[in-house]
Amino acid sequence: MNLIDPAHSSEQLAFQVTRNLAARSASERDRLLENPGFGTVFTDHMVDICWSEKGGWHRPRVQPYGPISLDPAAAVLHYAQEIFEGLKAYRHADGGVYTFRPEENAKRFNRSARRMAMPELPVQYFLQSLHELIAVDGAWTPSGEDQSLYLRPFMFAKEAFLGVRPAKKFAYYLIGSPSGAYFPGGVKPVTIWLSEKYARAAEGGTGAAKTGGNYAASLLPQSEAAEQGCDQVVFLDAKGNIEELGGMNIVFVMKDGTLVTPQSESILEGITRTSILQLAADRGHTIEERPVTLAEWRDGVASGDIVDVFACGTAAVLTPIGMLKGEGFADEQPRSELSLSLREELTDIQYGRREDKHGWLRRLDA
Ligand SMILES: *Cc1c(COP(=O)(O)O)cnc(C)c1O
């Protein structure tokens, strides 16, 4: 579908930059950055690149943040041909703005694109879009503890056509949203609900792609979880094994120090999970990626073979699971020192407080 090999394009796009004349003043920005919450405050600009079957990727722009005008027949509104990514920019003590393993997000974006029959965005363009946004809106990267600028790249089908086939026109966008500490009062264990009635993804489906439809499928079970007094849902995969939380991956810590994470074709492979498991491996822990049954989980907690359970993803980084509830049961989950120490090590690297041995950081403002 695409003419450029994403892995090998080193071409730079020439972005056309239109400054936002209504950009907020420094004092207004500082006021918003004091307590930005999550996902409601946006920076002054956005980046977009068009794709068409004839022209490939073209018209790269940086423009004022604002509404997108779409034809009511745009394919995304009907058939949900859409993908997204999520990563953060961190303000370091030296004033620099850094992001974490963005090439991994770019590659995953393209894996999602392939599954959703969308054009791949050359990794170089993805990275360049991050630099372009930070060049105009870098000042929106907050410097408070555990604060960051959340970056949201996304792509959708904008061709106006009601026939069912991959669209021939797409738009890639990048927006930025300053975000506060996920756990303002310190990390708090979550209670999760085991959804046996609903699945977020099917075998052969789109579970491994970061696409909005998977999230739409998770909303009703999420409401069910809330009715049960739970914060999050854990899903089973098509084989009945533990899958993930719908926006976070899950990891079990065993008595002998081994970290086990479910393997399943419908899991979205988190970059946070890979990184945490790498840090654990660096400390000498054995890592196992294999199917995990509900029985293994519940029995392991009961017998003491499992000593810690946590969820992980970009937004919350690492969240200990305090309780697993399901129809007719509520199992208190054990805690060890390990999860919070891995969380601290990872955030120390992200915020530049510890040596970046793996070369995971990329400076965006220089
Ligand atoms: C984004 C996402 C995750 C976490 O991935 P990270 O790269 O760690 O942020 C986990 N599960 C799903 C379904 C996701 O969409």
TrEMBL record:
Reported cofactor(s): pyridoxal 5'-phosphate
Leader sequence segment: none
UniProt GO molecular function: branched-chain-amino-acid transaminase activity
Catalysis performed (reactions): L-valine + 2-oxoglutarate = 3-methyl-2-oxobutanoate + L-glutamate; L-leucine + 2-oxoglutarate = 4-methyl-2-oxopentanoate + L-glutamate; L-isoleucine + 2-oxoglutarate = (S)-3-methyl-2-oxopentanoate + L-glutamate
SUPFAM superfamilies, per the entry: D-aminoacid aminotransferase-like PLP-dependent enzymes
Gene3D superfamilies reported for this sequence: 3.30.470.10, D-amino Acid Aminotransferase, subunit A, domain 2 (3.20.10.10)
Protein name listed in UniProt: branched-chain-amino-acid transaminase
PANTHER family, per the entry: BRANCHED-CHAIN-AMINO-ACID AMINOTRANSFERASE, SUBGROUP IIII AMINOTRANSFERASE
Matches recorded under NCBIfam families: ilvE_II (TIGR01123), PRK13357.1 (NF009897)
InterPro entries: Aminotrans_IV, Aminotransferase-like, B_amino_transII, BCAT-like_C, BCAT-like_N, BCAT_family
Keyword field: Amino-acid biosynthesis, Aminotransferase, Branched-chain amino acid biosynthesis, Pyridoxal phosphate, Transferase
Pathway stated in the Swiss-Prot or TrEMBL entry: Amino-acid biosynthesis; L-isoleucine biosynthesis; L-isoleucine from 2-oxobutanoate: step 4/4; Amino-acid biosynthesis; L-leucine biosynthesis; L-leucine from 3-methyl-2-oxobutanoate: step 4/4; Amino-acid biosynthesis; L-valine biosynthesis; L-valine from pyruvate: step 4/4
Species this chain originates from: Microbacterium amylolyticum
EC number: 2.6.1.42
Family label: Belongs to the class-IV pyridoxal-phosphate-dependent aminotransferase family.
Leading EC class: transferase
